[in-house]
Design the sequence.
């Protein structure tokens, strides 16, 4: 077994240390999405994500999903294939994707549901705690988009 290319919960092991993949997307929820359906999504994520080294947050509001995912690249890629094929999602839009992120923003959140009304505060807090310049840049972009851009509906929920 070659441990140089083996993925663990922190990404690929190698000489330069572990790296994480970070992906942020938005999608439209299928009609009829309710609290029970969201609870099922969160329960499924909390069951599967720890074993695949995936952490992050999910926001649902105004019929829109917003999700921040972080973990090993192959695992995040596989999860995104599942999400894009899931009939509960449509119009999946990739907002940001970064590889070689060194620190998790949400290390203790196997998948946390954040109320849409709280997303600005959560992202602002994450930006203050982030040590990775790429993450800070993505968080600043998301906060700007929440104010006036494509994510405006989400922050207004």
Sequence:
């Amino acid at each position: 077994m070659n441990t140089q290319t083996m993925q663990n919960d922190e990404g690929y092991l190698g000489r330069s240390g572990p790296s994480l993949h970070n992906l942020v997307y938005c999608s439209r929820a299928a009609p009829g999405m309710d609290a029970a359906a969201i609870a099922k999504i969160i329960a499924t994520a909390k069951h599967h994500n720890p074993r695949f080294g995936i952490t992050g947050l999910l926001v649902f509001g105004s019929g829109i999903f917003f999700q921040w995912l972080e973990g090993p690249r192959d695992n995040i890629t596989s999860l995104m294939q599942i999400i894009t094929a899931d009939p509960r999602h449509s119009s999946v839009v990739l907002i940001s994707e970064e590889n070689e992120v060194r620190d998790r923003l949400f290390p203790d959140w196997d998948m946390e549901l954040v109320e849409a009304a709280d997303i600005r505060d959560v992202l602002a807090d994450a930006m203050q705690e982030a040590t990775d310049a790429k993450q800070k840049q993505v968080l600043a972009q998301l906060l700007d988009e929440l104010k006036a851009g494509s994510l405006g509906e989400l922050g207004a929920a």
